[in-house]
Design goal:
Structural class: mainly alpha
Order of helices and strands: HHHEEHHHHHHHEEHHH
CATH topology: Amino acid/polyamine transporter I
Largest sheet: 2 strands, antiparallel
Distance between the termini: 49 Å
Strand order of the largest sheet: 1-2
Strand content: under 5%
Number of helices: 13
Shape: globular
Length: about 425
């Protein structure tokens, strides 16, 4: 049941998982649910955790990882208690995050929740375009370094790879809905585990090679205190992006050499074929990951337009095409135009801001407090009828306020890093 809660509450904008009576449609299986969840859990955020920990040092880094894990664990329990309303055991199921907010907190905050959630999904798509292009570029660089040596000027651009990924996603986006992409999430889930274990193995091998665990308590040295603070703040934003995703243990490289992305920044050079394979796994994972976060937005917008324009042929008509040796293909003009424009826009933004760590930090900071902390806490207050100024009320208010401060700090540092990278 916990897996079911995770999937259905995650798919916040997709009320299509419920029938007209509010009962969940059994369109998926246990295995499809597990695949979707793993696809969500192990995202590109884990690749920046080595860099983030390097900025914070051996004390603040692990402590930050532990704190974010605790924050996420607590908020997940709070949210799970709001799966049914008004009673958490016998009440009516809330088949989406927005449903839970609307039932417990009203339409205004439900609208705000939907806005933030869909914005988060959209910006995650941008982050996935950036990550995929860096991984595809890294494969070429890895092969170049293997041929020419580690000091060779192996420089490659991002634009072509972003356009290639965007073209693939235009095609993949024609998958009708969230429940028709089980096979894609299964592949992506396998790829998630593969590149995560490769990253762990390479880090562990590097420790054995060095015969010592390198690093310092204060983290990476900088020219001045201000730069140190900006990088530390950005690191918190990056860690926030990696949560509520699973923690992956990454070994820290020497702190002045730790790459922003463990498998593309060339903290590792050999075996080059393993680096290539890991990056290829990331690319395959993000093909599915992009769809996992985009399908709820597609469903939300298309259902809204269907209700607003019930007689429009552009919105509602489907046309069937039969190609040789292939099953019939149903085409909808709204789906083609909107989803294509969506993919094109995420690709364009990624081309303007192709900065992996900075973009992840901004997205993580924007998303962490409101979606992972504020709404679960507020939902819990209403669901459990927690009175003001009670002990539990005070503790959860303090918990929410601390997370808000962390979000603000991470957002400031990440925006500063994004501006500096763009101007630089």
């Amino acid at each position: 049941m916990a897996v079911e809660h995770s999937l259905e509450l995650h798919n916040g904008s997709s009320s299509s998982s419920c029938d007209d009576d509010g009962h969940p449609r059994r369109t998926g299986t246990l295995w499809s649910c597990i695949a979707h969840t793993i696809n969500e859990v192990i995202g590109s955020g884990v690749l920046s955790l080595a860099w983030s920990t390097a900025q914070l040092g051996w004390i603040a880094g692990p402590v930050s990882l532990l704190c974010f894990a605790i924050f996420t664990y607590v908020s997940a329990f709070l949210l799970a208690d709001c799966y049914r309303s008004p009673d958490s055991i016998t009440g009516t199921r809330n088949c989406s995050y927005m449903d839970a907010v609307r039932v417990n907190l009203g339409k205004t905050r439900s609208w705000f929740c939907g806005l933030l959630q869909n914005l988060s999904f959209y910006l995650t798509g941008v982050a996935y375009v950036i990550t995929t292009s860096t991984c595809m570029r890294a494969i070429q660089k890895s092969n170049c370094y293997h041929r020419e040596g580690h000091e060779a000027p192996c420089a490659y651009g991002y634009t072509f790879y972003m356009l290639l990924f965007g073209a693939v996603q235009i095609v993949m986006s024609q998958i009708p809905n969230f429940h028709d992409m089980e096979w894609l999430s299964v592949i992506a889930a396998i790829m998630s585990f593969t590149y995560s274990f490769i990253g762990f193995g390479l880090g562990f091998a590097k420790v054995i090679e060095n015969e010592e665990i390198k690093g310092s308590i204060s983290g990476i040295p900088t020219a001045n205190t201000a730069d140190k603070l900006w990088l530390a703040f950005q690191a918190l934003g990056d860690i926030a992006f990696a949560y509520p995703y699973s923690i992956i243990l990454l070994e820290i490289q020497p702190l002045d050499l730790t790459p922003g992305n463990l498998l593309t920044g060339f903290g590792f050079y050999e075996p080059y074929w393993l680096i290539d394979f890991a990056n290829a796994c990331i690319v395959l994972h993000l093909v599915g990951g992009y769809q996992l976060y985009s399908q709820p937005v597609f469903g939300f917008v298309e259902r809204w337009l269907t209700r607003k324009y019930p007689t429009s042929g552009f919105v509602n008509n489907f046309y069937t095409f039969k190609l040789p040796s292939l099953p019939p293909l149903k085409i909808n003009l709204l789906r083609i135009t909107f989803r294509t424009a969506y993919v094109v826009s995420t690709t364009a933004i990624a081309m303007i801001f192709p900065y992996f760590n900075q973009v992840l930090g901004v997205l993580g900071a924007l998303n962490f407090w409101p979606m992972a902390i504020y709404f679960p806490v507020e939902l819990y207050f209403v669901q459990k009828k927690i009175g003001a100024w009670t002990k539990k009320w005070i503790v959860l208010r303090i918990f929410s306020f601390i997370c808000l401060l962390v979000t603000i700090i991470g957002l400031i540092g990440s925006i500063e890093g994004l501006i500096s990278a763009k101007l630089g």
